[in-house]
Design a protein that fits this description.
single chain; alpha/beta; eight-stranded mixed sheet; about 15% helix
Length: about 450
């Protein structure tokens, strides 16, 4: 069934099949990992004016081989979406009424990081960059992952998206974790379904595909199958015909994923090598990392010992508190989504009352022999500063301009920092608190010449 809703000047149709409506808002019953029972609505779509939509061929030509950016929005501090046609770059959606205010993603950092990784897995066959760093003002689709159906004007829905029989530019889609529950696989699958609705894909009567309402067959991936459309029963597809192939549709629109052939870049931006601090000083260790696809994890080492890692951007900072006298060596290890790793140059600092810098070590390389980057130890590409030729941690993936790096988030900044709530040492514990009392034990001098 359908009903008409006026959104601005456009008339839209809320398409909620009768069988789907019977299940809206019912509690989830476990069937398999990350799945709800068949009577639980994963989401729906809203038909919008198709005049702004592009064909898959036109979309592919417009991208010119660059990756499609899908921004996962966790609504930190809350998010306001207004009615309008401005899309993701203006926080406007044609399918909402008036102004809606959404609360932050409710399940914490660990769950959020898992949602991001599972969403990347779902879209991994395609040239789609899934990021949780806002790429505005660059064109992108935005998957809003917060709130519930009633707060957005869609009571009981697990998610909702604009839909036409083409690709809607800069589409905003909604996934409602407060409706779906703390189930990261289910949330990722609904994100996949809603994003694909905005690219012209209908529901499928195929349990293994994210476009389905069915469950009981394990985690879902886009299937290279000519599948019947439908929710809990087969029906004609909304854009014509009896079947659709979600895999081939997305492949023809955005292309296949490019292989990750490059290791990430990694550098500590503060403190700098040779810095001197007074005993008891407090400071933040900040880093700059980047990759041609995606940085997955950054681990901080102090005097060769791993002291903690951060699994999502922005990476760090790691706060240091009440540091005692000694000489300390820091470096980081950056790992990308393909498992490639890079060790940063070593930063050595001295903590003493007389301002004596750490001793030089002529027997060692400038970077302590720890540079694992592709340049064989040349650090000139790690600073991301002016005049570096765009090759360093601040460099953008192929096909992007200088305005934004959706991987390293280095636009206009030489470091990646977090002002509060750092997850630096895992579980939100302060680096300074963990190392308090351990600094003196792990301090050591560099190799004597």
């Amino acid at each position: 069934m359908g009903m008409k809703r006026v959104s601005g000047k456009a008339t839209v149709t809320v398409t909620v099949p009768m069988m789907a409506m019977l299940g809206l808002g019912l509690p989830a019953l476990a069937q398999a990992e990350g799945e709800a029972s068949d009577d639980y609505a994963r989401g729906t779509y809203v038909e919008v004016d198709a005049s702004r939509a592009l064909s898959p061929a036109d979309t592919a030509a417009q991208l010119g081989g660059a990756a499609k950016i899908l921004y996962l929005q966790r609504c930190e501090g809350g998010l306001t979406i207004r009615q309008g046609n401005g899309g993701s770059v203006q926080d406007e959606s044609a399918i909402v009424e008036g102004i809606i205010n959404l609360p932050p993603f409710p399940f914490g950092d660990a769950a959020w990081n898992d949602v991001v990784e599972r969403t990347r897995t779902i879209f991994s066959p395609f040239n789609i960059l899934v990021t949780d760093i806002d790429p505005s003002p660059m064109p992108h689709d935005e998957a809003v992952v917060c709130g519930d159906g009633p707060s957005a004007g869609f009571p009981g829905a697990g998610g909702v998206a604009p839909f036409s029989c083409g690709v809607i530019p800069n589409a905003i889609t909604f996934t409602f974790p407060q409706t779906l529950g703390d189930d990261t696989q289910l949330i990722a699958e609904v994100i996949g379904q809603e994003a694909a609705h905005a690219w012209g894909l209908d529901h499928e009567f195929l349990c293994e595909d994210p476009m389905t309402y069915l469950s009981g067959c394990g985690p879902k991936t886009f299937q290279d199958i000519d599948a019947q459309c439908g929710e809990f029963n087969p029906r004609q597809c909304s854009c014509g015909g009896a079947t659709q192939n979600s895999y081939q549709h997305i492949l023809s629109t955005f292309g296949a994923s490019a292989p990750d052939t490059q290791a990430p870049t990694a550098a500590i931006t503060y403190p700098t090598d040779g810095s001197v601090f007074e005993p008891g000083a407090e400071f933040d260790i900040t880093v700059n990392v980047g990759d041609d696809v995606q940085v997955a994890d950054v681990t901080l080492f102090v005097d060769g010992t791993a002291e903690g890692s951060d699994g999502s951007a922005p990476f760090g900072p790691w706060p240091v508190s009440n540091i005692p006298e000694g000489i300390y060596e820091f470096y980081i290890e950056a790992t990308d989504s393909a498992g490639k790793t890079t060790l940063s140059p070593v930063v050595t600092i001295s903590v003493n009352a007389n301002g004596t810098p750490p001793p030089s070590d002529p027997s060692a390389d400038d970077d302590g022999g720890l540079d694992g980057s592709l340049d064989g130890g040349d650090n000139s590409d790690l600073g991301g500063g002016e005049g570096d030729g765009g090759a360093g941690a601040g460099a953008l993936p192929p096909g992007y301009g200088s305005e934004f790096d959706p991987v390293a988030n280095t636009a206009g900044c030489e470091c990646t920092t977090r002002s509060s709530g750092s997850r630096g040492m895992g579980g939100g514990t302060s680096f300074g608190l963990i190392l308090l009392g351990l600094w003196g034990l792990r301090a050591r001098r560099r190799r004597a010449s």
